[in-house]
Amino acid sequence: MNKAKLKSVMALMGFTQSQLAEKLGISEQRLSAKINGKCGAEFNQGEISKIKRIFELSSEDIDNIFFDDLVS
């Protein structure tokens, strides 16, 4: 996951981690763990879909944010 790209999108849209966590229905601590990849925390498909909808992202944007490190 490219956390810098996600944080950039959040900043451009004026979202804090707290606000995004609320929209996703998870705690701010859990969101932070997912963004930072701590304790094996990852975004699930439903959360990725919500983020795509909230920020009106393209499929390419989603690929660049969440799957960038999977492509060599």
UniProtKB/TrEMBL annotation:
One of its GO terms (molecular function) is DNA binding. SMART domains: HTH_XRE (SM00530). Residues 6-62 form the HTH cro/C1-type domain. Keywords: DNA-binding. It comes from the Bacteria. Pfam families: DUF739 (PF05339). This is DNA-binding helix-turn-helix protein. Gene3D superfamilies: lambda repressor-like DNA-binding domains. The keyword DNA-binding applies. InterPro entries: Cro/C1-type_HTH, DUF739, Lambda_DNA-bd_dom_sf.
